[in-house]
């Protein structure tokens, strides 16, 4: 696979990196980020809240005994990546990062060169068999044991229904495995439609945003049992501290949850 980055075309992974305060982004990514902020001024705040959900979910899963993570659409390794969070409580945790963006893959590989408990795959998450049968992944992850699959902030980039894709991964997981995901929605934020249009125009048809409703997102957990507090807005999922009184959770326009496979 060609891992040479296209500097002139913005990338979802690199725009996300910009909003998280990372340095692995280019002028084209920053220009699109500025247009996204015009459409939804608090989009950066929302993306950082999405990252915070990832941290809390990983900590919760490690506490539940999970020692294997499959991070699909993992993005660029900015501060607080899955292996860093997990290693604080369980240094024996194994993490497999999967992304289609060459910049994300290259930076991840450089960062993790000397880490024997992390692997990086350049692959398309919409091709589950290609991902799951990859020899590098099979060597790192024991699918006879529980695995946590992470799909955080990525499924709204898929125009087609992601439910069959998730079901394919689910059917190859051991009982006791988990699914953690977050997904953008316009249920409570009609201006998310303007963000979607900016997103679609900015990526020049290389990526699309599909905003789904709460019932559509909840259906993605088919076969999994949602753990408390269920499917909620980003700051409501096991917050480290109470949500500020003046911060309406509905403004985050993103549902998130964690489910366990029985």
Structural account:
The protein is α/β, with parallel strands linked by helices. It has a single domain, classed as Vaccinia Virus protein VP39 (Rossmann fold), CATH 3.40.50. 36% of the residues lie in helices and 16% in strands. The protein contains ten helices and eight strands. Strands 1, 2, 3, 4, 5, 6, 7 and 8 form an eight-stranded mixed sheet that branches. α4 links the parallel β1 (68-72) and β2 (94-99). The longest helix has 21 residues, at 43-63.
How is the secondary structure organized here?
Blueprint (H helix, E strand, L loop, with lengths): L11 H8 L7 H13 L3 H21 L4 E5 L9 H8 L4 E6 L2 H10 L6 E5 L5 H5 L2 H6 L7 E5 L10 H8 L7 E7 L7 H11 L11 H5 L5 E3 L5 E2 L20 E8 L1
Parallel strand pairs: 1-2, 1-4, 2-3, 4-5
Antiparallel strand pairs: 5-8, 6-8, 7-8
Helix pairs in contact: 1-2, 2-9, 3-4
Radius of gyration: 17 Å
* CATH superfamily label: Vaccinia Virus protein VP39
Low-confidence parts lasting 5 or more residues at pLDDT below 50? none
Report how far apart the termini are: 37 Å
DSSP strand count: 8
Q: Which word captures the global form? A: globular
CATH topology: Rossmann fold
CATH architecture: 3-Layer(aba) Sandwich
SS element count, helices? 10
**Average pLDDT:** 91
Instruction: State which percent range the strand residues make up.
Output: 15-25%
Structural class from helices and strands? alpha/beta
Helicity level, as a percent range? 25-40%
Counted up, domains total 1
Question: What would CATH call the class?
Answer: Alpha Beta
The main β sheet shows up as: 8 strands, mixed
Multimeric organization? single chain
Task: Give helix and strand order, one letter per element, not per position.
Answer: HHHEHEHEHHEHEHHEEE
């Amino acid at each position: 696979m060609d891992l040479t980055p296209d500097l002139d075309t913005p990338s979802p992974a690199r725009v996300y990196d910009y909003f998280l305060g990372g340095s692995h982004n280019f002028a084209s990514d920053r220009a699109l980020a500025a247009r996204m902020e015009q459409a939804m001024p608090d989009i950066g705040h929302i993306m950082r809240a999405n990252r915070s959900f990832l941290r809390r979910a990983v900590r919760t899963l490690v506490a539940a005994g999970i020692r294997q993570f499959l991070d699909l659409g993992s993005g660029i390794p900015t501060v607080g990546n899955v292996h860093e969070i997990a290693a604080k409580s369980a240094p024996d945790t194994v993490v497999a990062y999967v992304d289609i963006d060459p910049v994300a893959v290259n930076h991840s590989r450089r960062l993790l060169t000397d880490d024997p408990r992390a692997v990086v795959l350049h692959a398309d998450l919409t091709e589950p068999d290609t991902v799951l049968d990859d020899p590098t992944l099979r060597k790192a992850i024991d699918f006879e044991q529980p695995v946590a699959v992470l799909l955080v902030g990525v499924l709204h980039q898929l125009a087609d229904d992601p439910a069959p894709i998730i079901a394919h991964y689910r059917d190859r997981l051991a009982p006791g495995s988990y699914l953690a995901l977050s997904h953008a929605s316009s249920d409570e934020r009609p201006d998310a439609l303007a963000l979607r249009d900016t997103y679609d125009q900015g990526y020049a048809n290389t990526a699309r945003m599909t905003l789904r409703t709460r019932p559509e997102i909840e259906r993605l957990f088919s076969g999994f049992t949602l753990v408390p507090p269920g499917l909620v807005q980003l700051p409501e999922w096991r917050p480290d501290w109470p949500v500020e009184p003046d911060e309406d959770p509905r403004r985050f326009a993103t549902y998130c949850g964690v489910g366990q496979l029985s």
